[in-house]
Amino acid sequence: MNDKKITERTIKNNKKETMQKRIFLLYVPGTIAIVFAIAYIMTQNMTFLWLFGLFSFITIFGIDGNSKVCENCHKWGSVNWTLEKGKEQVQEIITENAFGKRQKTYKKTKYNNKIGICKCCKHKIVKETKQRI
Prior knowledge:
This protein is of the alpha+beta class. Helices cover 43% and strands 31% of the residues. The protein contains two helices and four strands. The protein has helices spanning 8-43, 46-66, and strands spanning 79-84, 88-96, 102-118, 124-132. The protein is flat, with a radius of gyration of 23 Å.
């Protein structure tokens, strides 16, 4: 993908907007949710439990948006992630017990690629994930 040219001013504005959204969607609701959880534990009042659930939902929404921040232009929620199936690798391990008998075990490892493409600057991000089967 071709990266679009983005000015320093745009990056600065995107960083400011991202920080504001992090504060309002992550830090503040997360802190308030913890306070309501402590208040519910102390009083056993269901109102605090409902408020805890509400602010936890907002915090989860903020975590999801935070995972979609572009590394190039720092725009909040602009990365679309897709999962590309990768390769499987089989590793053979031979162990020998006390009686001299050999045993073979196999370990399968699957490598997947998460590919993110920014809607704003068309920057491509590739993250490789490793999964044992």
